[in-house]
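Margin note from the TA: students keep mixing up input and output lines. Inputs are the sequences; the output is the structure of the whole complex. Example:
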Amino acid sequence: MDIFSQIGPLRAFLDQKKSVVKSVGFVPTMGALHEGHLALIKESRKENTITVCSIYVNPTQFNNPDDLAKYPRTIERDIDMLKLVGCDVLFHPSNDEIYPENSIIAFDFGSLEQIMEGKFRPGHFSGVAKVVSKLFNIVQPHIAYFGQKDFQQFKIVENLVQELKFNVQLRCVPIQREKDGLAMSSRNRRLSDEQRQNALVFYQSLQLAKKLLEQGLSLSLIKEEVKKYCESKPGVSLEYLELAEATNFVQTESVKTNAILLIAGHVGEVRLIDNLLLNE
Ligand code: AMP
């Protein structure tokens, strides 16, 4: 695997490769890799001649400085995992490489970022859009891979690509879960054994909400039930449970085709998210 920390040498390397290879796949990550990330790399390897992964903990997408400081960083282990799964190129830049300037531009995604993650994490999606734009311009991939785990983020990136005419196709890869259903996440490393058990409550809540929707219960009652259920576990608090249309990401009260249930909350001080596509 070729590893780059600077934009210039990576661009020169990729320019040369692009003259001979058919397609470049790109998987942007913040590292502390797990099987969820590797599923994206494996998808990219199926469809592309070379796969580029980036590992960069993007400071502008963190609205909470403590969350940024405590974000797990395991670069040596990540490199071993990427080699094992056959990733071709790793881009692992410093903050100075990505944000040498005083970053003054900001993105506003309107209603798309006034709900759920955008509402609870002000500025988060502007930071995501900045770094994704920079990375797309640096790597110029043919296809980029994102996880359904961050579904609203995927919708934001779809919007970004469409409006700014980035010449890249997007893929949304299903959520990879632990055996008991917990969505894999780099933040799971920060949980104690007991918290790890309690964190299951979010996936269980999604399943409970799905069942209650099928039984015809109103969304507001379901939200109350889920809040009670989550907060019956020590250290767990619920931020939101919402139902949205998967295509345009508009919140809804009842299941239409392609609906998605989304949940977020804390276990101790660790913030976790999960979601469940309905009608699958
Ligand atoms: P992150 O490193 O958390 O920024 O994630 C990098 C990419 O991996 C994002 O597109 C995530 O949606 C995706 N991802 C994270 N966790 C999972 C998971 N459990 N299953 C599938 N994709 C995931």
